[in-house]
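Follow-up to my post from last week.
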Amino acid sequence: MPLLIGLILLVVTWTVIRAVFPGRPLVALVPVALAGAALLVLFYPALATVEFWAGLIGFVAILSALLVVIHPNPMMSVLFLILNLFCVALFYLMLQAEFLAALQIIVYAGAIMVLFLFVVMLLNLKAEEGLRIGTGPQRWGAFGLGLLFSGLMFWAIQNRGRLAYFAPESAGGGFGTAREVAGLLFTRHVFAFEAVSILLVAAMVGAVVLAKRKLG
Amino acid sequence: MDPVLTRLLIESAVKIGLLFGLVMTTVAYMSLVERRVSAWIQDRMGPNRVGPWGLLQPVADGIKFLFKEDIRPPHAHRTLYLLAPMLVFVPALVTTSIIPFGPPVRLFGYDIRLQIADVDNGILVVLAFASMGVYGIALAGWASRNKYSMMGGIRSSSQLISYELALGLSIVGVLMGAGSLRLDDIVRHQMAHGWNVLWQLPGFIIFMTASFAETNRLPFDLPEAETELVAGYHTEYSGLRFSMFYMAEYANMFTACCVAATLFFGGYHVPGLDRLGLPSGLAATVQVAAFAIKVAFFLFVFVWVRWTIPRFRYDQLMNLGWKVLLPLALLHLFWVGFIVMRGWI
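User reply:
Got it. Predicted complex:
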């Protein structure tokens, strides 16, 4: 009965707001959608479980990843990639790796994707230029590799219980917190960490030299 | 349903509602304060006709924005054009959710924190969502399909990415002192060891300068630069969508001021308050008021600077960001590291 009353109230609110602001569907949609979501969570507790959200976010992640490749407009591709990175960050959050989630958003969604956006805007690509389907051997090669990769994924999911690497315990306590990540970076992996930073500096210097030579 | 979850949901919903109201009121009245203060600085009267001292001016503005015709340029990219104002507005609101506005209080028999989410990586969340705001601006510029808008959008993306580095590095000093990323821990550390601004003044100055750039405020408002670019990224917007950009700017300013007060000016800490022995309810009220005063002061500084310093040229902006602020921030880190190593803090 309370559910019915709630639904009736929702419909009434929707109609009233639509009547007051006829030209603005969003003004009505946002509060009604929020109230509707609250109703759903209150009456269907299954919606508040991690499994449900993992499934939903996984669906969005796969859909956005597909759209990155298929969408003809490069600008939209960039945006879908950002959406995808957000989904990955949410997965980190669900695994309680909050530090990794924050870094994912700051570094990938925040910094690197801004550069992507910047480049796409500068090049001013037309919509059709974004999508070029490979021909001949390239297409068949891509198809074969994709098939191989999906087989590998399928095998990994099938055997996830048997491999020690996939066990949640292998990550250890405090996995993905700032303390843990910093500890690993500056003790066990310090050589690799420093090597990567030197590599990045070298790449940066190389890029600057190449750009300057072109300028003359 | 699980009572803990129900309580959490209701508590969060109430807090979100209150904070949303607070931010929107601040934003509305900042638009009035900005005009009154600018008038005062330029020896004019400013808007003083709607209500006493013009206090109802924001209401009049809101109604005007709501009922304006929503003009959509036919050549614009429809989806992104409609999406962009929201992409600017939402991150600006999200960031305020982790600011601690006061100490934990006991209300109706519950211990309630005066912040929506007490996140372990609080300051990283601020940085993460601060960097999201650029998408809305860049996309607004791109989707308008107008060369002035486009210039504004490109400027905004390069400006924000340049100043984000200095902003992040200026915060690192605070983190080194407190040894935690949680905003509440940072406030507690300052309660015990004095405000960060006392020994991290360069960090504070770098933070404020970078904040001006991140919020697109004068002297760094090159993305809209009305003398060169008509109105930059929001040239093609009108009515409610235009007002969303406007509100996002003030909401970002509010967040930047809250973060500055929390990181460098002790948050809700009032020196010597615990020695007075006030009842806890009164003490909490005083602390929240102190936080509000600190934030109000920084908001005034934002307005003050806007009407004092003229706009930078674009190359000057980039030089300041990369050649002055970034090396300064790195040097500052050495200083903070030295003090922390010696155990003085």
